Amino acid sequence: MPDTTALIEQAYSAFNKRDIDGALALMTQDVSWPKASEGGKVIGKEEIRAYWTRQWSEFDPHVEPLAIAAEDGGKIRVRVHQLVNSLQGDVLSDSEVLHVFTVKNGLIAAMDLGDEADTAVGPSAAFAHRS
Question: What is the model's pLDDT at position 43?
């Protein structure tokens, strides 16, 4: 799993640096991604770019992987420390959450929120407080 671990760590690092191009380079063209701050999902790199651009104009999220574990079928479970601040620096959420990645051919094909029942219903609790 060393290559997969490095892939996941690179993706978090790029996200935290707001390096959209660097993060998207690690994903498949048709990557599926949860819209944690809005609810639902986006499909494809350009939809992720638009979503992250909106998200970062409203919140300042930082996610740090704490534990990475491989499962069968290319699934990678990542326990992360998620800190969501308002743009003014107020802490909106400070918690641990579970992200579940699907990796195909060395690229991230999907990410799902592993600890929330249904992201299609609405935003993650971490993003419930609008700035």
Answer: 98
CB 59 within 8 A of CB 86: yes
Question: Which pTM value belongs to this model?
Answer: 0.85
Residues 6+ apart with CB under 8 A from 25: none
Answer whether 112's CB lies under 8 Å from 98's CB: no
Residue with tokens 């892939």, as numbered in its chain? 7
Determine contact, residues 97/36, Cβ cutoff 8 Å. no
Residue 111 has a CB neighbour count (10 Å cut-off) of 22
Is the CATH number of domain 2-116 1.10.10.10? no
Q: Which residues contact 4 (CB under 8 A, 6 or more apart)?
A: 68, 70, 76, 103
pLDDT tens digits, 50-74: 999 999 999 999 999 999 999 887 7
**pLDDT mean for each 10 residues of the chain (131 residues):** 86 98 98 93 97 96 96 90 96 95 95 65 51 41
